[in-house]
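Limitations
The structure tokens in this dataset are predictions for the assembled complex, not deposited experimental models. Users should treat interface geometry with appropriate caution, especially where small molecules or nucleic acid strands are included. An illustrative entry is reproduced here so readers can see what is and is not provided.
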Amino acid sequence: MLYSIIPPEVVLRPADGPAAVLWEEVEASGARRLILRRDADGRVVIERIISTEPRDYLDPALQPGQPYHPGRRE
Amino acid sequence: MDRYAPPGAGSAAGAERPQAEVRVPEIPGLPAGIPDGGDAPARHEGGEGDAAAPEAELTPPSAGDRPAQGKSPFQALTVIGQIEGHVSLPSQNKTTRYEHVLPQLIAIEQDPEVQGLIVLLNTVGGDVEAGLAIAEMIRSMSKPTVSVVLGGGHSIGVPIAVAVDRSFIVSTATMTIHPIRLSGMVIGIPQTYEYLDKMQDRVVHFVVANSRISQERYRELMFRTGELARDVGTILVGRDAVREGLIHEVGGMAQALASLRAMVRQGGRHQR
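Predicted assembly:
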């Protein structure tokens, strides 16, 4: 049940048109998760970090747009 | 903590998507090489369908390029957008998902390097039960916790804001107190009213138990007329939330972190 200042008809409105990106969410180490997407050149890059560790947001390798390294333990 | 609704996830968005978009192409090189070898990744698609994707040009693994470092003593949980419940919301919504937040809270509680939690809120509300679940988890932590309401902490964001040991609101932030309702639904049977009342009672009781506002006053704010243009309820701006007893202090990051440090020095949590 929604309890929000945004009306349900706005929250539940279907997205306008197909989005242009493909998303994938992967688990990094611990409770950290990464949202990945494929950029225009076909590279898998980091779109967003989900983490409570403030230092993650300062790590250059985890900045949005950086290539994702599947073999590396973040 | 975005959400990207999987097709046919039960939302209106899924129902209108063409069948061709149900299959989601793999991102080459990803599933087999996911760090930790953990669970298969949750997949979210934005509608690209089966368009042929070029091979990823992944940089070779570079294990040493990130300096070893410990955990920050204070972890930060951001509660933003809609708090998502059991149904994935359409992708234009920015959401906070409980399946992310609850494990994070467990990790924070258990990690000996972590001394406290700061919760940053800028939320428009969301699912009642997911919001209460997050609030209860924060409330039951043994480590010192603080919250800062930034921008807005509305609706089901209120219980989360007050679930901590010490709550703060910046002077420009707002909190909207309003009743739970089923917009657009014709309520035909008394049981529906009772169900709504019970849901609302859960929120009210949690807020009253974890702040200094009385139940009578909270309900008064909730059903006040003339304050909101299209609804009953009250908007509390910064200092108003403190004056009403919902939030402890007007303050931002400096005050919140100082409070956390003080609680750690004192070896425990504030008396609420």
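Some entries come with short summary sentences. For this one: The two ends of chain A are 36 Å apart (CA to CA).
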